[in-house]
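Annex B, item 7. Sequence and structure tokens for protein A, then protein B.
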Amino acid sequence: MRYFARLREALGPQESLPFTEGLTAAAVRDLLIARGGAHAEALARTQLLRCARNQQMCAEAVSLQDGDELAFFPPVTGG
């Protein structure tokens, strides 16, 4: 899992989660929100965020595979 822009500032550059078969990007976001604290605030459903799987933009409904890289970032980020 990688974070960019303001998410990186709040949560750090990256972290790992154990893989669970059938997990979607939306489910990962919800798991992280459930941690509370900075995760709940930065990834809240009221926050408009984009995600990418293996450096390709994707919808949160995408199913993840073991070894995939999932990234979350605000809709507009700098270069």
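Protein B:
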Amino acid sequence: MKILAFAGSNSTTSINKELLNYATAQLASHDINVVDLNDYEMPIYSIERQASGFPQQAIDFHKEIKDADGLIISLAEHNGNFSVALKNILDWVSRIEMPYLKDKKILLLATSPGGYGGGNVLEVGLKTFVHFASGEVVASSTFPSFYDNFKEGNIVNEDLKVSIDEKIKTFENSLVAVEA
């Protein structure tokens, strides 16, 4: 199965990228394409800019989605919402095709340094990816207090590790079910 994975952040030191790397390492037997939002930087979406055509980065990101059977997304929370980098990409992609996640299985994660673990952006993500983009979020989780619970590429809080590993397994099983 082909999996597209990305952190919803353009930060080079993103904790969501670290959590994403943990999740993808658990699925090493699959064909995983981890992309960096920095490779898809483009003008801020507007109807006037769209009239001039789609940026190649939007076309490329849309193709990455279309080629994948499933997606792993670890959302960064910026003032309770998506990062501007992710929102802009999704605005462009949604104009290429809506719904752009139809028939895609999704593992949706979010983390933050605080105790709510990106819970606000996870709620936004569930609404966006399910209701507007028609994806199927088969598992989702927040990961609170990142710096206390994640060290050197591993989850050190055993309860959180069990929970995240279960979500990853649920996602993997959903992909296997599609393949069968």
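Comment on protein B: The first helix runs from residue 15 to 25.
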